[in-house]
Amino acid sequence: MEFTAQIIANYLGGTIDGDPDVKVTTVAKIEEGFPGALSFLANPKYEPYIYTTKSSIVLVNDDFVAEQPITTTLIRVKNAYEAFASLLDLYAQSKQPKSGIEQPSYIHESAKIGADAYIGAFSYIAEGVSIGDNVKIYPQVYIGPNVKIGNNVTLYPGVVIYEECIIGNSCMVHSGAIIGADGFGFASGADTNYKKIPQIGNVIVEDYVEIGANATIDRATMGSTILRKGVKIDDHVHIAHNVEIGENTVMAAQTGVAGSTKVGKNCMFGGQVGVSPHVKVADEVKVGAQSGISGDIRKPGTILLGSPAIEISKERRSSAVYRNLPELMKKVSELERTVQELLQKLDNK
Amino acid sequence: MEFTAQIIANYLGGTIDGDPDVKVTTVAKIEEGFPGALSFLANPKYEPYIYTTKSSIVLVNDDFVAEQPITTTLIRVKNAYEAFASLLDLYAQSKQPKSGIEQPSYIHESAKIGADAYIGAFSYIAEGVSIGDNVKIYPQVYIGPNVKIGNNVTLYPGVVIYEECIIGNSCMVHSGAIIGADGFGFASGADTNYKKIPQIGNVIVEDYVEIGANATIDRATMGSTILRKGVKIDDHVHIAHNVEIGENTVMAAQTGVAGSTKVGKNCMFGGQVGVSPHVKVADEVKVGAQSGISGDIRKPGTILLGSPAIEISKERRSSAVYRNLPELMKKVSELERTVQELLQKLDNK
Amino acid sequence: MEFTAQIIANYLGGTIDGDPDVKVTTVAKIEEGFPGALSFLANPKYEPYIYTTKSSIVLVNDDFVAEQPITTTLIRVKNAYEAFASLLDLYAQSKQPKSGIEQPSYIHESAKIGADAYIGAFSYIAEGVSIGDNVKIYPQVYIGPNVKIGNNVTLYPGVVIYEECIIGNSCMVHSGAIIGADGFGFASGADTNYKKIPQIGNVIVEDYVEIGANATIDRATMGSTILRKGVKIDDHVHIAHNVEIGENTVMAAQTGVAGSTKVGKNCMFGGQVGVSPHVKVADEVKVGAQSGISGDIRKPGTILLGSPAIEISKERRSSAVYRNLPELMKKVSELERTVQELLQKLDNK
């Protein structure tokens, strides 16, 4: 696709400083610009780049005043960042959506599939599956028996959904994510051999959830493992059996939540965080990367860091002392010596 | 499936308090019960729920005495938990096992496949593969050249087994697990480029092993990476080349064991544990979540925590002091001041 | 394959002590040897094994002098380790490379595929894809629209490459690795719902890169996520959007690098390391396992450990004191008591 500055300015309701006929085909960061790209300037920190950028068009805020000559074409809009984001959306949506059923694919005769579906080659849709409208199933996806999928869902290549799981509307699941594999449950017997505890529950993923590549959401022993509306989890995140993650909680890559833990809504977890089993985490809790949560977090909005995690400013103070522990130990040794000398002096007086 | 209280009581050798004709189709926790579900009460902590549960049937111990009116139907058995577990097994086994070979699938003419196999569509079985009886291979599985698989094995969708690997009897491998990919071995040359060291060994998985979703077990450089009988590893666990994991050792999600390390039998590792290369870990060692093992653990039964991991009670005491390090530092500073004053006072006397 | 000692000695330019007709079919470590295997002895530490090994042939250095009777056949070469490595290479290369296009596979008519390709069954090659010569694509691989792949590339079963990504020459990608899934980018709106930021960039993998099983390399928001020439990343490694990893940098398993971070060249990261977003790491930096990098590392060659990571010798000293924190606290308490007593004594004088 190719757009002129004029077309973009018209679409955004902006005004042009420069060449209305200059054309762009893609977008770029202002500091990485090149001819044919459109960029934006919102953060004043990046203003120096507007005098040197090679991008053909830059979106700026209405009130931007240039302090040096500018060679790129400007489009002035009310809010440059929002205008850029709306163009990004337009760009992303402009890709012709896939549709139709590619061959060979395996669709059980009892499966129900809604309107405007795309089902890629080598995908497998088992008996009793029900799929809503406008669902895009890329190649090599597996959907197990009796799985229910809502409308406007995208499943990228290689996604696996085990039997009986439920996926809401407007969800996106990236490649290699496994939804509904058995929870890790074994009973130790009289000998040292473990006996598998059947995992007969399922996974429920509510609306507007995004699941990253190679993430794993295990099915419940009984009942359901639940990702509430709007949850976003990154690549390699592991959600164990019977866990519940509250609405709009986000978790960065490689974080793991152990069995039966309940995490509140609007929480933010950094990467590589671990949460112990059977823990309750309140709403709006923020957890720094690599932290370990080993007990209930009862106060909403708590900000935590460390393993075991404590209140972040406390952790930072402890961590600062930790870096100087050898000096602290030396001070204590010197104190001990001085106090010994004092004791002797005192005895001698 | 649908069962009456009478049928279940007969099967379990129990007695009924209530309606012998009430029907159930599934199971639920007593606190999450609903009409049509069967629950159990074993832990006295949950007793209050028996007066409010919506489950249609609850299994209780023979000696249970109700202290309030009960509306659900009770089945009295010797051990309510064990009776429930046996019903769970029955429920899990009652699912009609898959069988037959779905099309399209790719089975090399030289592959040998035992009795009662299920081979799902889009699965690939290479030359020289040998597969035992009663093996269930779900769709989109890859089994490389000369792989040997025992009896009663289940491979879920998307499992990959590289060439020459050996899987024992009664193993279960969950979706996305990769067995036998190359170990991470490179030699640094004269320049800064690395030269790949060919990884020509294999992986041996003994009997009764369960491997979680998206786990990776790398093949040995030479010889074998080995998971001994009864090992259970959770989702995202990484086992590097030439590692050996002893009998009945269990490892929770996202744990990683580096190259050539030997872990003993009956060990228990929490989630996100890391073990350094070329380390020996004794039998029955327990390691807390997020710990790091960087040297040999020689004493069987040691319980470890922390990174680097130390004996758990020692780590907990250190960790408790760590949380109060700023206070400790303040005390030391105050002591220094007091001691200075003391020195001056003494000099003045 | 089967080789006599004579054939191997001729190939390596070595001389034989023992039976020139003895045959081997595989290789083994000298301490794990068995009849039919070839081993080597380079490290004097392993010399005792040469008197007891069951390997049929052992490569030794020219100047090796036996101190006890030897039953195995020796081949004397200039450098036993290098000779062994060259045999390993030969052994690995001797496997007949796969070629041809297996059915069923899905290859869009607009895709261009070079000479000597292998395309396994159930692989999917989308529109506009361009693939170089001598590329081996195992079964169940997905290659999205407009992906470009160089020469001599191997993609193992189940690899997924999203649209528009670029893979250089001589790369190897192991099973389950996902290249080009969406970066984890969401904007928080007026309410608590997140709005997805379209990820319209791509991933560029340069020449001689190896990517481990189940690794994830996310596509850039705009521009490219880049793995430079010679990068080696192990299983389960996560590289977030807009990250750049410098030439010949190696990262061990389960390490994660957050968004927009730039890592220099010739760096070495241990397993389970985490790096914060928007960080710059200099060249030749070494990072110990489980470390967390949360700020810029400006000095090339720095060696780091801990979370947050500090200079390794500093971390080790702090860690040593940490293990004895309870004793340190006890000392401080005793000091406080002694100083109090001193104060009283002094007042009494």
UniProtKB/TrEMBL annotation, chains A, B, C:
Could you tell me the EC number(s) of this protein?
A: 2.3.1.191
GO molecular-function annotation terms? N-acyltransferase activity; UDP-3-O-[(3R)-3-hydroxyacyl]-glucosamine N-acyltransferase activity
Pathway assignment? Bacterial outer membrane biogenesis; LPS lipid A biosynthesis
Catalysed reaction per UniProt? a UDP-3-O-[(3R)-3-hydroxyacyl]-alpha-D-glucosamine + a (3R)-hydroxyacyl-[ACP] = a UDP-2-N,3-O-bis[(3R)-3-hydroxyacyl]-alpha-D-glucosamine + holo-[ACP] + H(+)
A Pfam match: Hexapep
Q: Which CDD domains match?
A: LbH_LpxD
Limits of the UDP-3-O-[3-hydroxymyristoyl] glucosamine N-acyltransferase non-repeat region domain: 21-89
How is this protein annotated for GO cellular component? membrane
- Give the HAMAP family listed for this entry: LpxD
Purpose: Catalyzes the N-acylation of UDP-3-O-acylglucosamine using 3-hydroxyacyl-ACP as the acyl donor. Is involved in the biosynthesis of lipid A, a phosphorylated glycolipid that anchors the lipopolysaccharide to the outer membrane of the cell.
Record protein name field: UDP-3-O-acylglucosamine N-acyltransferase
Q: List the source organism.
A: Tenuifilum thalassicum
